[in-house]
Description:
The protein is α/β, with parallel strands linked by helices. It has seven helices and ten strands. It has a six-stranded mixed β-sheet, with helices on both faces. The two termini are about 25 Å apart. The structure holds adenosine-5'-diphosphate (ADP) (2 copies). One adenosine-5'-diphosphate (ADP) binds near residues 14, 20, 43 and 45. GO terms for molecular function: ATP binding. Keywords: ATP-binding, Nucleotide-binding, Transport.
Amino acid sequence: DSVVHAKGVVRVYGEGDTAVRALHGVDVEIESGQLTAVMGPSGSGKSTLMHILAGLDRPTSGSVTIDGIEITTLGDDALTKLRRQHIGFIFQFFNLLPMLSARDNILLPLTIAGEKADPEFFDTLVERVGLADRLAHRPAELSGGQQQRVAIARALVSRPTVVFADEPTGNLDSRTSGEILDLMRSSVETYGQTTVMVTHDAKAAAMADRVLYLADGEIVKETGRSSQHEIL
Ligand code: ADP
Ligand code: ADP
């Protein structure tokens, strides 16, 4: 069962002589309940692909559906709404709001949507991510690892269809990275959280169900339990 489906995705930046073809017609399906890692050299198109699959950017041509909804024909407002309802984000530099407590940062996606957290789900979530005694702290009073835990809880709190993580361990030391990866893995196990992670981290790839390798704007190789075929 796939929750994000991309077909023939081309992304060209700019026009004319200076145009950069970042993606050359990528076909990919993100399988429900799996952790999918996206790897590849710098400039291979990982961020571009992630932004398109997450509805942050639109392809120049090709088709992308999120939860069965074709995003390429949606207007900006409808796309923003779909993103809020279906997508959670985790960033390399955490992107927390400095003036808000950990609790309010975690609740932000629900606050923006005018919704309230189910108290039981919220308590279990903050317990799982190890923040139960840090909820009143602002980001500056938390370690990098704790800040990323806040970001993970924020991504999970609205129970999104897919969580996209962009180099989630890129700004953390190796021990803390391991803890954050364990946490991401456990959200897949515990909540069946479909997760897509762009990473350079071999340890991250090792715990993924599936790894997509990009080179020069194309998926050149795919490994993992779910892959029907290896292209290389
Ligand atoms: P990666 O995430 O693998 O490093 P990117 O998706 O960031 O790769 O970039 C893919 C290609 O697209 C690169 O050649 C990059 O220079 C180019 N690119 C990315 N974003 C832009 C942009 N906003 N304008 C022009 N070129 C871009
Ligand atoms: P970038 O830093 O990659 O340019 P933006 O700040 O422009 O990203 O945000 C792009 C999208 O990412 C937003 O429309 C929103 O959907 C999502 N996003 C950004 N920051 C947050 C956040 N703190 N919490 C949840 N989603 C966020």
